[in-house]
Amino acid sequence: MKGYIFLLLSIFVLVSCNEKPVEKPDRLINKETMIDILYDISVLQASVSFKPDIVNQNVEVEKYIYEKYGIDSLTLHQNQRFYASDVEDFNKMYKELSEKIKNEETIADSLSKSEKKVETKETEVKRAP
């Protein structure tokens, strides 16, 4: 008897894991745009953490995201839930997001180094007789 209950319970768990627990939203945001939204949210949240007074005066993070992508909070929430319900696919999206952030960080670092070189050369020229 215990074997049958275990078997039925196992089948139930396997069948329920194969179905998507969250329904597709009425306004589905494509993956590329969702990655862009997540990127913008990450950058804006990092900016708020780094310089809260400046960013809070100029940009309302949520309002900016909603206006830029023509969505509302419900649409964003439904899409986040939908994409998060497929863990493997969501991990792929976050890997793409991480790569995008790393690429932007590399570009920013190289620009920063270039600016420092220019500033150093300008300082040397000013000191020269």
UniProtKB/TrEMBL annotation:
Pfam family, one: DUF4296
Domain DUF4296: 25-105
Region (Disordered): 107-129
Keyword Lipoprotein: yes
InterPro entries, sorted: DUF4296
Coiled-coil ranges from the UniProt annotation: none
Compositionally skewed regions (Basic and acidic residues) per UniProt: 112-129
Keyword annotations from UniProtKB, A to Z: Lipoprotein
Name of the molecule in the record: Lipoprotein
Natural source organism: Flavobacterium okayamense
